[in-house]
Amino acid sequence: MHSPELSRHDTATAGDTLARHLHTQAGAFLRSLRLHSESGADTAGAAEAARALRSSARRISGSLSTFRPLLDPDWADTLRGELGWLSATLALEHSCTSRMVRLLDALSRLSGTSAVPRARVEPAPPGEEPAPGGGTAARRGGALTVGAARAGALLERRLTLARTRAHSAALGALGSSRFHAVADSVALLASELPLAPAAAGPADEVLGMLADVTERRLLDAVAELPLGRAAHPYNAEALVNGLAADPAAEQQDAPWHEVRRLLRLHRYAREAVRPGDDPVLCHAGLVLDHHREAAEASEAAASAARTPRIAPATAYALGVLHADQRHEVEAARFAFQQEWRHATAAVPAP
Amino acid sequence: MHSPELSRHDTATAGDTLARHLHTQAGAFLRSLRLHSESGADTAGAAEAARALRSSARRISGSLSTFRPLLDPDWADTLRGELGWLSATLALEHSCTSRMVRLLDALSRLSGTSAVPRARVEPAPPGEEPAPGGGTAARRGGALTVGAARAGALLERRLTLARTRAHSAALGALGSSRFHAVADSVALLASELPLAPAAAGPADEVLGMLADVTERRLLDAVAELPLGRAAHPYNAEALVNGLAADPAAEQQDAPWHEVRRLLRLHRYAREAVRPGDDPVLCHAGLVLDHHREAAEASEAAASAARTPRIAPATAYALGVLHADQRHEVEAARFAFQQEWRHATAAVPAP
């Protein structure tokens, strides 16, 4: 979706340019880390710092993946694995929070009470256990049916518990010797980058070629998606198997999640080769983020419905909620194929 | 959507042409009635005859409504009320059957078992009570979850019972003196049509004018529909209030049901003025039939979920099914706005 453009480092080697890029990302990583440790009781500040830390970790990890042929492969794979562990650990708390917001908002919408103030979703201070059953959704009352109110309270209880655990795990990870080793490796990235012989090649040609490989993988993965079906609104594809015993729903989501991952990798590779973001790719990525969030939220509703001894009205509301989120999954696929068609129509594929 | 066209009865009065049209419809009505009474144990034949009987009754009733200014109003209103009673009584059995097919098919689709043979949906012979719990859905097993299987069995039990009652009511109605009075009135329609003075006017002008009034009512009702919103796929409008305590969902469906009714009235008025059907109007009508069927099916799923002492898994499956059918409601609205845009783009409005 882009033709390699001569960057401003005409005479630089690929290794030089990659080192410069990783240096920038490592700087952002270490800055976020300092902000996080300084945030103290400022939970919003800590969350923002954690988000920036995850973002830098993903970008560094993406560069290590895309430009692996220019690096010592064992070293690159090891650091990439550690950065993956870090991002995943930090991401969990955020995803619990956004899943809760998404599901409680959906319950409000389905109950015609969208005007009600949004439930409290800030991370719980460490060590403060949320009172079971004391959720905001349960207190709303009003036009909410008993089932929707109970479903909201159940989801809030489960997701608050998961978020508290994720928060503790993230704090534990950031204080661990494993994390300090990752931070040390990142700090040394720019100065002591272990390069492979191919890194001596000209920057534009070598980096552009490797970025094109990443793009090709994305294009191939998109070509495998059922975009023709997704282009037909209300095709009811996302809810097929919605009540099946085997988790076939996850199977149909997997190729879309893979495209989301490859799209991000492609965006990061582009950034390394040519600074600045592509708004179309960025928006397509957001759409696939929604796809994954809705898929995970629908699974959270289905999982909550398997709680023993819940009332039928609660289970009914969770069933409606599950289907609602599966339709958001389908809506995201429809939006993605529109974005993609728009993008490929605007810029000829390489 | 049509400009009145000179019909072949250039010199006829409006009363003559209307009488001829009603004569044709009355003939169809009486033929269907004879077929029905001759069908005996042939349930498929009886169902087809009942369908044709309903169709004629609706057409006669539609003509009495559209061309009321040409008729003795008290007589027209009385006969129209009786025909309405008859159609409603005969329609109930059919709608129970199609609702059961729709819901069991949807459960199969949601369970990934669409290849399984469709459940038995023929009307039960009079007096034969279906065995509770012995439904086809319960026996399917396989990939169906326990909840989906139980939900299917519950719906089959409830709708079979409702259908059996509707069947008995229809048989009772067809044997009643009230029905014989309606049949007598229909038989006398053509020969003794009680006309008003306006019926002496020229056929084309008067009938065309009254048909245009019906069309104008349709256009006004369509203009009130939220077509702009319906044109955005996945707007999630149909499931808003899906879990609300008050039945607000029915309120949002009502304008669409009204357009469906007016569209049918318009089609029947067109038939009286100019024989032959308009395929676009016909298709738009089918789409609104689906809209109503899905709305009623979603309500049947919600209603079944209120059965006391059902298992949470059953309630969950009914929740998914309810939401699925509400999305079919939304899909029908999307399809209708496309049909309508197509129709109004093809033929300039009068």
Structure description:
Chains A, B: It comes from Streptomyces zhihengii. Chains A, B: This is CHAD domain-containing protein. Chains A, B: Pfam families: CHAD (PF05235). Two copies of one chain form a homodimer. The first copy, chain A, has 350 residues and is mainly α. Chain A has one domain: CHAD domain. Helices cover 71% and strands 0% of the residues of chain A. The first copy, chain A, contains eleven helices and no strands. In chain A, α1 packs antiparallel against α2. The N terminus of chain A is likely disordered. Chains A and B meet through α3 and α11 of A and α3 and α11 of B.
Short description:
The structure is a homodimer of 350-residue chains. Chain A has 350 residues and is mainly alpha-helical.
Question: Which structural traits does this protein have?
Answer:
homodimer, 350 residues, CHAD domain, disordered N terminus
